[in-house]
Specification:
By secondary structure, the protein is mainly β. 0% of the residues lie in helices and 46% in strands. The strands form 2 sheets. It has a 6-stranded mixed beta sheet, with no helix packed on it. The protein has a 4-stranded antiparallel beta sheet with strand order 1-3-8-7, with no helix packed on it. It is globular.
Length: 112
């Protein structure tokens, strides 16, 4: 399996929404837990959301109620729907599975 490809980032005003996509290759996509992570400017990468193969979800407290993770196994794609965005959500966003390869990420910039 190659590295995932994230897309959908951009510049958005505070309070706005964005939908990030993550396309991954490999025949075992549906068996993996997938997660979204982010790295704010000058900070360490942090976990944001997780979605298991059984469709259980968990979220970091900082995004709970505002972000939604989902997947389509037929398309080998994971999404992150982000709403009520705040300036502190500004970061490079990545998707990955446990033991997987990191992609290049997609930059989300929230202007206040």
């Amino acid at each position: 399996q190659g590295q995932p490809v994230e897309s959908g980032g951009g510049l958005v005003q505070a309070g706005g929404s964005l939908r990030l996509s993550c396309a991954a290759s490999g025949s075992r996509f549906s068996t993996y837990t997938w997660g979204w992570y982010r790295q704010p400017p000058g900070k360490q990468r942090e976990w944001v959301a997780m979605l298991t193969s059984g469709l259980s979800t968990t979220y970091a407290d900082s995004v709970k109620g505002r972000f939604t993770i989902s997947r389509d196994n037929a398309k080998n794609t994971v999404w992150l729907q982000m709403g009520s965005l705040k300036a502190e959500d500004t970061a490079v966003y990545y998707c990955n599975r446990p033991g997987g390869t990191w992609g290049r990420g997609t930059l989300v910039t929230v202007s206040s």
